What does this fold into?
Amino acid sequence: MNIEAITYLYETGMISKADTHFANFIADLSKDNDPEIFLGAALVSSATGNGDICLDIQTISEKRVIKEKNGEMPVIFPKLDVWLEKLRKSPVVGKPGEFSPLILDENNRLYLYRYWEYEKILSESIKKRVKEDVKDIDASLLK
It folds into this structure.
C-alpha cells in the first residue's frame, strides 16, 4: 500500500480527515512510517466512526480497493500474513490486556484501545449477570 492509494481512500471518502490525522499520529508514534500501520490506524478509526467496535483485518486483506484503469496497477489491501506481521511488530500495537494505542486480538481484529476495553468491560458484566441467581424475579411485575 503506497501513499497514492491512501490518498485515494481519502478522496473517495473511505477514510476521513480525522482518520488520516489519527493515522499520522499513530505512524509518528511507531517511528517507522510503515504504510500498513498507517492504513490499519486510519481504517480502525474509520470503522469506529461508522459505529463498529473494531476492524476485522482478515475480511479486508487482499481486497481490491481500486480497479485497474488506464494501464495502472490495481490497488489491493495488503496480504493478511504480511499485514499482521507488521502490526504485531509495531510498538503501537499490543495484545489484549496490554496498554497500547491499538490492540490486535487472536482473531485478527484491530481495535482502538478504549473500544477493546469497553468490549471487555461489557463482556465481563454480561458474564457476571448471567451467573446471578434469578429465582426471586417477580414475573407478573415484569409483564
Notes: The helical segments are 3-11, 17-30, 35-49, 57-60, 80-89, 113-131, 139-142.
